[in-house]
Amino acid sequence: MAGPSPWATHLSHAGPCSLAALRTAWLRYPNLLRRYLFSTDHKVIGLQYAFTSLFFLLVGFSLAVLIRWQQAYAGQPLPLLTLLVGEVNAPGGIMLPEFYNQLGAMHGTIMVFLGVVPLAVGAFGNYLVPLQIGAPDMAFPRLNLASYWFYAAGGVVMLASFFVPGGAAMSGWTSYPPLADFAPQGQTWWLAGMLLLVLSSLLGAVNFITTIVQLRAPGMTWFRLPFFVWTQLITSFLLLLAFPALQAAAILQGMDRLAGTSFFLPSGLMVGGQAVDVAGGGSALLWQHLFWFLAHPEVYVLVLPAMGIVAEIIANNSRKPVFGYRLMVYSIFVLGFLSFTVWAHHMYLTGMGTTISAIFQATTMIISIPSVIVLSALVLSLHGGSIRFNTPMLFALAFLPMFGIGGLTGLPLGLAATDIPLHDTNYVVGHFHYLVAPGTIFALFAGIYHWFPKITGRMMNETLGRLHFAGSLVTMNLIFFPMLMQGMAGVNRRLWDGGAIYQHAEPVLYLNVPMAHAAFGLALVQVFFIVNLFMSLKGGRRVTANPWEATTLEWAAPTPPRAHGNFDELPRVYRGPYEYSVPGMDVDFLPQHVPDAKAGA
Amino acid sequence: MEIPYTSEPRPDTGLTNPKIGIWLFLASEVMLFGSLFSAYALLRMGAETWPDQSAVLSVPLATLNTVILIVSSATIVLALAAVRAGRIDAYRRFMGLTILGGAAFLVVKAFEYSDKFAQGLVPATDNFLALYFTLTGLHALHVVGGLVVNLYLWGPGVRMWRTDPARFTGRIEVAGLYWHFVDVVWIFLFPVLYLL
């Protein structure tokens, strides 16, 4: 990468945000802009997604640290806080409940929609899918560019909402009406931001599916696709077909808030002791149906790419084909399909009726089968392997039990009888954090360590990587396991005082303090990662094009892959993706693009 | 390196990239309108009273609009046929008619809206009108989007006919598919909102 310094200094001399300066810069440095900001190359867009989503992960995580501090030390002044979030939100260093609610809603929103999904799909998918299928780029490069900028715009709108009167959205990441219909204007910004993000993922999904269907290299038949590509394909279908439900819901809520309709407002609604002056006749349940029709497939959007990354890394580092490749592919097809049929298991408490609950219980139990198949196949892939315990592999290995805990703790939530006492408690929070934090985010970290040498031609530091891994694993468990315990004791989620208001919470409240300390610890160990990432860009050990001795096509491309085109010449594919330790071979890996004659015995 | 199959179909799938792309996009649109239609069903099923829809709205105007959209759907097919036959003048004529059709639809819609507003019927009046304005408003936005694309393909976009006729033909086909979709949505909206 060429140093963009002339462009940076030019802007700093020109003063802030002057259009004329931008124009001059455009005329003077059109190449730099086209290369780094408005490139249509899938790799550049992938990296834009990567850096933006990592930034948002950091923002979302910072909000979580504030939440943990507040739960442990509710009502105690923290002078630094006023400095950070202003007198309005924390007068005298004491966090106001209204601001606490914003933290909760925006932590969820930012982590899911601006952090994890864009990193898993926008960054990893964009960078790797064309490389792994042997394509020169995505099928629609300009659509790809538009997708990134809609995402960035959505992110800006979400962040800006903190600064509007009344602050950001504060009705939970689920934005349930009627509450959300009457929230301050930050909620409208949330809806607008969501529309942009859904638009972005729609364009991305169209692009991914078309790319995978159309641009596979010669010989890259369907069952020679790396498992990661399969997960991206299914994920894209989920994005394509589930997200419009949220779009519809956001439009309806926007109408409620701006045009005075009552889609989600029932007749006779009282707010603050006053009858609300609306036509009424709406249904709060309608929002929940539309929202969860999106948000349950969304869970699999978070999970599938992680499974894909882990499969690639486990095959590569155990020097063995993944166990049951076809079975895994079929499983995620079933998973993708069934994910559209389980949404109302989030709604057992709404009084929608026991018959409907029974149906959704059944589908929910069925969907656990393909998930268990994939996880078991990944565990079995280790059996008899010759395992390399490097940083990406450690993260991938930790993914298995952590994701397992997340999955198993989900079963009681899928059954109405056990969900009723656990619903809306910290148990739920613990459950899905096990899936997403030491589950998906670990897989994403694994992916960063694994593909960094392909992107930069340098290795990330192994010692720092191990410190990052061990520290994150310990602290995450210290944060999320107590949540399960608190939830079993009946402590509700989203409480400003961490549960102190409830007598029955008393025996488990002390856990809030170690959880907060673990959260600070988790923040500290991320420094290892950040330092490692930026140090290794310039100072990492140089490596060749295929340092992990991997088989899939991205390692056949030069390092870094060629701008606009990826490969020196388009590869031809001769075999499946995981030909490791083939008996009778001199080397223990057989890349997909090497002809049989050259592979030799 | 060129991206393959932008205008030639890939042999094993038999499709070009834009064609797959537009079908996927339309699938997503089906889910968007489908969500709104199910919102309509849920709210109407749960409502204690529901206005007589055809008494509130103007069935003659909507019938006129239905005819206009169906005709414009036919003219865009003729435009595609003209491009395929290499008759670019005929293409511009039929595409021009399609655009006029879309514009006429919006004009009629504007009359309908302003008539409702004049009677004091707004989205906040009741859930039927809320659904009516939301659904037809979103549909009208889709018409506007189609008009922008069609105008481009009728005007400056025609240049591509000389440089890359195969790709230009593909564009007309894709624009046509989208326009048919807009038409089909209206064909669902018309009975659901005006007649049922």
Itemize the secondary structure elements and their pairings:
The complex is a heterodimer of chains A (601) and B (196).
Chain A: H1 5-14, H2 19-28, H3 30-37, H4 42-72, H5 79-85, H6 97-133, H7 141-160, H8 186-214, H9 227-258, E1 270-271, E2 274-275, H10 284-318, H11 325-338, H12 354-382, H13 391-414, H14 416-422, H15 426-456, H16 462-488, H17 506-509, H18 512-539, H19 596-599
Antiparallel strand pairs in A: 1-2
Helix pairs in contact in A: 4-6, 4-7, 4-18, 6-7, 6-8, 6-9, 6-10, 6-15, 7-8, 8-9, 9-10, 9-11, 10-12, 10-13, 10-15, 11-12, 12-13, 13-15, 13-16, 15-16, 16-18
Chain B: H1 17-46, H2 53-56, H3 59-84, H4 88-118, H5 127-154, H6 160-163, H7 165-195
List keywords for this structure.
heterodimer; A: 601 residues; mainly alpha; two-stranded antiparallel ribbon; 19 helices; B: 196 residues; Four Helix Bundle (Hemerythrin (Met), subunit A); 7 helices
